[in-house]
Structure formats: structure tokens, C-alpha cells
Amino acid sequence: MSLTSLASGPVAAVLFKAACPDCRARFELAAGALRLAIGASRRTTFYSFTCPECGTAVRKPAGERIVELLTGGGVRTLRLHSTV
């Protein structure tokens, strides 16, 4: 996962480079195409998207740097809460 900024007009559009583990396609996604879930542990913190090439739902772990990039780029974030 990496970040690309396209300057067009007063607001820069943010695109994220991603890859599908199923079809191995590489592509760029806008922030609206990604979702970030932040859980209580590394195991429950992940981002997800649908591959634009094959339609597969993709879920990948998100470490601190990925969380920082995605939240800074405007990706919608869901904070998961423990019921214990």
C-alpha cells in the first residue's frame, strides 16, 4: 500500500496503490474505495477493498504506518470496540 497525490485544482486527490492477491492485478484506488477497521490488536486492524479487476473482496492487515497513510488520505475508518 502506498500513497499517490494528484494535484488538480485547489484540492489534491489522493490515490492509494494496491494489489489483488487473487488475480495479482495492480491498480490505484480513491479513498472512497477503501475501508479501514481499527481493532484492539494488530490482528483486528485491517483495511479492505474490492478488486476492480476480478471483483474479489480483499482484506489485508494494517500496521501503524498503513493506518497513518489511510486516515491521512481520508479513508473511512471504523473503530472496533470490545464487548468485554
Overview features:
globular, 84 residues, three-stranded antiparallel β-sheet, four-stranded mixed β-sheet, mainly beta
Report the average pLDDT across residues: 88
Whole-angstrom Rg: 13 Å
The helix-and-strand class reads mainly beta
The number of strands is 7
Low-confidence stretches: none
Give the SSE map.
Layout: E1 2-8, E2 11-19, E3 26-30, E4 35-38, E5 46-50, E6 57-61, H1 64-72, E7 76-79
Parallel strand pairs: 4-7
Antiparallel strand pairs: 1-2, 2-3, 4-5, 5-6
What's this, in brief?
With 84 residues, the chain is mainly beta. The protein contains one helix and seven strands. The longest helix is centred in the last third of the chain and has 9 residues.
Describe this structure in words.
By secondary structure, this protein is mostly beta strands. Helix content is 11%, strand content 46%. It is built from 1 helix and 7 strands, in the order E-E-E-E-E-E-H-E. It has one helix spanning 64-72; strands at 2-8, 11-19, 26-30, 35-38, 46-50, 57-61, 76-79. The protein has a 4-stranded mixed β-sheet, covered by helices on one side. Strands 1-2-3 form a 3-stranded antiparallel β-sheet, with helices on one face. It is globular. The model has no long low-confidence stretch (mean pLDDT 88).
